[in-house]
Amino acid sequence: MTTEHRRERITDPERIRALAHPVRIALLDHLGDVGEATATECAEALGESPASCSFHLRMLEKYGYIERAERRGREKPWRVRVADFDMRPDPDVPGSLLAVQAVASMGLESEFLRAMDWFSKVDRESDEWVQATTFTRTSFWATAEELAQLSRDVQDITDRFAGRHADPSKRPDGARFSRFFAVVNPDPVDPASAAGTEPEAQR
């Protein structure tokens, strides 16, 4: 079974809240990085106990995030079931907004720490890889429809690299496992923006 080229929409609050745990997010990230791993291998990578990893892996399986991979003799590795999630609230599903808020907060913290780790060690990298890195911030005016389209565009940016997780032969020489993290959101509503007036700081 391949995990590429599929994006699954998730709106069920219980299923979303199942990810609101740092160990589960770390396990899902690790399995996405390595392709497949046993509970013991996950424990070694995360610095957690095998028992803790086994429990959280079973919870991830229960809520449809991971599945059993092919056995390796007596070993029973896990793999992600779908690599790409579209996890956003549905106004018709009570509780989905609060569930997404909880998971988003944990995800933002995780990505912040990961980016900080990179920048704290960037002096050890060659100039080629330093120049290939970007930290981008920008602001602009957009309608809800335009922002929604931008969100879809951002989600699709890395599709050009599809298949390289599962098939190493698709990775060009010199390729390194890389990270992409982006947030597209409007500023919170305030009297100035509601009146269509540009905030003073952005003029």
TrEMBL record:
Stretches assigned to the HTH arsR-type domain: 14-102
GO MF, one annotated term: DNA-binding transcription factor activity
CDD domains in the record: HTH_ARSR
Entries under InterPro entries matching the protein: ArsR-like_HTH, HTH_ArsR_DNA-bd_dom, WH-like_DNA-bd_sf, WH_DNA-bd_sf
Phylogenetic placement of the source organism: Bacteria, Bacillati, Actinomycetota, Actinomycetes, Micrococcales
Protein name: Helix-turn-helix protein
